[in-house]
Amino acid sequence: MVRIAVLVSGGGTNLEALLEAEESGRIPSGRIELVVADRPSYALERAARHGREAVLIERKKIGMKLFSSELVDVLRNHGIDMVILAGFLSILPPSVIDQYRDRIINIHPSLIPSFCGKGFYGLKVHEAALERGVKVTGATVHLVNEIPDGGRILIQKAVAVLPGDSPETLQRRVMEEAEWKILPEAAQMIAKEIEDESR
Ligand code: GAR
After folding, report:
1. Is 78 part of the annotated catalytic residue set?
2. What CATH number has the domain bearing residue 167?
3. How far apart are CA 153 and CA 17, in angstroms?
4. What is the pLDDT of residues 52-81, one digit of tens each?
5. Which residues contact 27 (CB under 8 A, 6 or more apart)?
6. Residue 27 pLDDT grade (very low, low, confident, very high; cuts 50, 70, 90)
7. Is residue 150 lining ligand 1, measured as CB closer than 6 Å?
8. What is the pTM for the complete model shown?
9. How far apart are CA 32 and CA 67, in angstroms?
10. 92 phi and psi, to 5 degrees?
């Protein structure tokens, strides 16, 4: 069984979707062993409610250098094989990217390469999509490398932009119709690859 860590910064609805998927047998190759937050966030309560170990490492309080080394330590101590970024808003330290090459996935709330890269996160992505007037947006799960939102695309799903949408209504539709479905799907895809490699 592949040991998964989920990294979060916010409300944790994607974490919830992952936990529900795992608990209902849709991630048969992996188990979420650890949740790490880089700031106090509701996602930590969700982890606790599902009986999962959760750790808070406050990046802003301790600085990037210490944050990086504490993160690497906690992943190592828990024997983590794979990392999922689920609304994680810190830039991942190169030491982690290097140690988990092709084993880190991220969910981004647009169809990459639109509205992605530095400065595009959370509601800002949907504000930019509405500002540009696109009629279709969506979500992407991709592998993580040193380029923000630049790793290989694993799954994408399109979502319609509707007349009268606000950034909030669009964000919710993208989550419901795309993110909460494709993130667990991609998690299983990569966990299965890791499982097969170690056979
Ligand atoms: C999600 O929409 C996720 O795609 C986005 O932040 C939100 C987190 O929500 N991530 C990014 O923008 C990363 N660039 P959640 O905490 O409820 O899962």
Report:
1. no
2. 3.40.50.170
3. 20
4. 999 999 999 999 999 999 999 999 999 999
5. 4, 18, 21, 184, 187, 188, 191
6. very high
7. no
8. 0.98
9. 21
10. -70, 135
Residue with tokens 């982690």: 96
Q: What confidence score (pLDDT) does residue 132 get?
A: 98
d(CA 7, CA 29): 19
Say if residues 35 and 16 touch (Cβ distance below 8 Å).
no
- Structural domain boundaries, residue 79: 2-197
Cis before 113? omega within 30: yes
pLDDT at 59: 96
Which one of 36, 106, 107, 127 would you pick to mutate in the ligand 1 pocket, going by the greatest count of ligand atoms within 8 A of its CB?
A: 107
Q: Can you give the length of the chain in residues?
A: 199
- The structural domain count of the chain equals 1
